[in-house]
Please model this.
Amino acid sequence: MLNFDFQNPTKLMFGQGRIADIAGEIPKDARVLITYGGGSVKKNGVLDQVKTALAGYHLTEFAGIEPNPLYETLLKAVDIVKSEKIDFLLALGGGSVIDGTKFIACASCYQGDPWEIIFSRGTRINGALPLGVVLTLPAAGSESNHRAVVTRKSMNAKISFYSTEIFPRFAVLDPTITYSLPPAQISNGVVDAYMHVLEQYMTYPVNAKVQERFSEGLLLTLLEEGPKALADPLNYEVRSNIMLCATLALNGFIGSGVPNDWATHMVGHELTALYGIDHACTLAVLMPGMLKVQKEDKRLRLLQYAERIWGLKDGDEDAVIDAAIDKTRQFFETMQLKTRLSDYGLTAENIPEILEHLKKHDMVRLGERKNVTPEVVRKVLELSLQ
Amino acid sequence: MLNFDFQNPTKLMFGQGRIADIAGEIPKDARVLITYGGGSVKKNGVLDQVKTALAGYHLTEFAGIEPNPLYETLLKAVDIVKSEKIDFLLALGGGSVIDGTKFIACASCYQGDPWEIIFSRGTRINGALPLGVVLTLPAAGSESNHRAVVTRKSMNAKISFYSTEIFPRFAVLDPTITYSLPPAQISNGVVDAYMHVLEQYMTYPVNAKVQERFSEGLLLTLLEEGPKALADPLNYEVRSNIMLCATLALNGFIGSGVPNDWATHMVGHELTALYGIDHACTLAVLMPGMLKVQKEDKRLRLLQYAERIWGLKDGDEDAVIDAAIDKTRQFFETMQLKTRLSDYGLTAENIPEILEHLKKHDMVRLGERKNVTPEVVRKVLELSLQ
Model:
């Protein structure tokens, strides 16, 4: 096992009806900015529940944080924070709203060009407003971690940053809130969480048995519960297990003390920034090819994955690995995600542009061995075409 | 899954050489009380490493916190805290030293009779000094949780208390520190951690798949690594996995959202208080009988345990369960723990005294269904005799 630090101070408030408890987590005299996206929190009653829970508080709203939240949009919220003297942020949403609110939290405290926060990958953050979360879409894990991804439209750039300042103080995880999600968002969420686990698990063994088994526990649970969530949308237990998986897939623990990959995510961000493909869909397209291209580097873990997740262990090693990768792709397809670049209208002609953007964002040595160069990514993209 | 809150702010600093990093976690002007037990931290170099790391700090030492730390001893440390104006506590040890230091932390801030802290089960705690931990014995999980157990000799009472005030700020987990532990302490630690998992896992299903699989991951890892730690004491990877298991077995997560048992611990505490039997040994003696007596209440989970942990699933259900319980007992014996009350010189004549003490400490409705009455405990004790 590698040396590591792990700390996650976010308070998880899990279960039906927990929005009612948020007033206990926010100072009574706080001036709160409630942030959300396209307005689904109005339709599903979340915003009303929050206002009821926070009766008597000074509340301001900022709507319109889009999927893959835009730097340009978020700066408008920073202006409101300053003009309204906001001192607590409450994000109602999924990864995009939460990530955007994390940026608002630190940009509101930053002296200088706020783009530096993102371009420094968070190292220049010197403080942040406290934030809480009411999670509406289990997927990104942003509700209990210290990372965020923001897109700057004018640069076609989607970039992650990190800071212990942006851990949410609390996250309400009420599975019933997810009942009204469209099936595509359920699917994306399950696949996104699955892929978060793979990015931390599908590397090489360092004898970290606990992290491996926790990862496998999350993968198995997502495999069992994901299809049920599509077939039986009002099943509380299924939604509960998915919600908790998504949070734990990226709360930092399973990636502690082990090598981390994240190459698929980095390439996926470019596909989203360039072509607007949903985040989870980019991962579903890229991961099978990424695993095939890196079969030798990841051989031991691929065999472990094949056996413990898919029950595949007999016969030729390469055949076992190929079968496990095929089953992984089939799972994404069972979750109604398309898994080829051609499904999104992309062809071999797009590959040079994707590679160029990776180079522009300094994404030239990816993966746990830093050997996923643009030339390796070219092979992955070629395998992902059809 | 049941509703729950989960928050654990302790920073884990894992790996070889991490004591060197503790100065980054303690204010430079802090007046630090270093607490420890019988002096093994002098022999194994931990105390020297700590003093080197904290060169320039105002340091005071308090030695002599015994296994099952005594209220009477700890009050002496509270006097030192007050006279030396201590404002940070640093525990070097295992569960006993850490638990004792947690009590010192809150007793130092308490106005009134400090016994009220314990007898109120922590509800009267109104503040605590900050504390850090250098873990020397992986077992209790106290290094990253909010519970402690203190014994009051004059009353033969061993009682747990809880407070979010007593989460350690940080815990150094350096597996090499455990190399010099005597085999009996390794054994006790592995069995104690295993039993902490069972107390949170061996109840009834509430469809909490993540918690179940995490628990099973810890059990499997302890089963694999425990015997190796005895056979190959300088194996860093084995020690690493055990250390992390012990911490995660009782950091609060696997017991969140699920029923908790803890009856075996409560009865075990009485055996320790009355007869001085090591904590883990009391658990190894009691658990097999506790599972047999509660076979109906725990049937579904016992079958899951038999299959996922021991690979037992074919044939008569009762035979499968009995075999799983037998294998559990054999594991304790493989770890060199004795598993009968008679091994500790106890007979049927001791049973009334044990039940009387349970009643005195209001431990009359134990277990996840609150149906483990003294009469049920009597049956467990009778099954545990030979």
About this structure: Chain A touches chain B at residues 1-18, 207-210, 213-214, 216-218, 220-221, 224-225, 237, 240-241, 244-245, 248, 256-257 (CB under 8 Å). Chain A has 14 helices and eight strands. The first helix of chain A runs from residue 40 to 43. The mean pLDDT of chain A is 97.
